[in-house]
Specification:
Elements: H1 2-8, E1 12-14, H2 19-22, E2 27-28, H3 31-36, E3 40-41, H4 44-60, E4 64-66, H5 72-83, E5 88-92, H6 120-132, E6 137-138, H7 147-150, H8 164-176, H9 183-190, H10 192-197, E7 213-223, E8 242-252, E9 255-259
Parallel strand pairs: 1-4, 2-3, 4-5, 5-6
Antiparallel strand pairs: 7-8, 8-9
Length: 267
């Protein structure tokens, strides 16, 4: 796949997981998984595949994009590979830089994601990776599920959470307001950087560019209410959270898709 993609100079997007190590795991392998009696999923399951895929990218000279990086070891491997000139980019999700495996203690299946929520140490590494440019994309990893797939025992529930409606608020709350990223840096990781990875002329405000625009207030506080989501699915662990930073209007293809400037309580 890497050799074929190189012909067109497009990236291969890799979900890095060694099934021999993660097989059957439902959360991060560590103290919390042991205490809860849930099968753990070690960070090594991600790290060994990150290492393998980057070695293949180096061998072929191809572009590689690593999806939803979750652990400190992966960040360090990617940083070292980029320093060696390997053509690798990587992304992180808002839930991975916000929640730790401690969130699983309530057995809320909305915290069950792939890769799993890791530790506070991993979050610190993800933040540093965002800060120094090792992780240049923030992706939602939006994965809607209905109640029949989530309202189950933790081990039986499906992986994934909805991410579109909380991504901006979480990124502003966790990264901008805590000084991890400046506002231009944050917005680039949500817009122009992912477009650049995919070779798309998107994510910029310019005459003739696609009129896909989000108007937001980085200071506006709002409370997450899954019942007001526009998504048909409600599988979010952030219900009830207070976030600082709110999308007020979205324009897609020049048409207003959402407008709550006059009524911010509308989701």
């Amino acid at each position: 796949a890497l050799e074929y993609a190189r012909i067109f100079d497009i990236p291969v997007i890799s979900h890095c997981e060694d099934l021999n190590l993660s097989g059957g795991g439902v959360m991060h392998e560590g103290l919390v998984s042991t205490e809860l009696g849930l099968k753990g999923w070690p960070a090594a399951a991600e790290e060994v595949m990150v290492s393998r895929d980057m070695a293949l990218a180096e061998l072929t000279g191809s572009r590689l994009h690593i999806a939803h990086v979750s652990c400190a070891g992966s960040v360090q491997l990617i940083r070292q590979a980029r320093e060696r000139g390997i053509r690798v980019t990587a992304e992180v999700t808002p839930h991975h830089f916000t929640l730790t495996d401690e969130a699983v203690r309530g057995f809320d299946a909305n915290t069950k994601v792939n890769p799993p929520l890791r530790t506070a140490e991993d979050i610190r590494a993800l933040e540093e990776g965002l800060r120094d440019g090792t992780l240049e994309v923030i992706a939602t990893d939006h994965a809607p599920h209905d109640l029949t797939e989530k309202d189950l025992e933790y081990a039986q529930a499906s992986f994934g959470m909805v991410g579109l409606e909380t991504a901006l608020g979480l990124a502003l709350e966790r990264l901008y307001h805590r000084g991890i990223l400046s506002l231009p840096q944050l917005l680039a990781r949500l817009t122009v950087h992912p477009a650049r990875v995919l070779g798309l002329d998107l994510g910029r405000l310019a005459v003739g560019a696609p009129a896909d625009v989000t108007l937001f207030d980085p200071e506006r506080r709002w409370q997450v209410d899954v019942n007001a989501f526009r998504s048909k699915s409600k599988n979010s662990p952030f219900h009830g959270w207070s976030l600082r930073g709110m999308a007020l209007m979205t324009i897609v293809g020049g048409e207003i898709a959402m407008d709550r400037r006059e009524n911010p309580e509308r989701r």
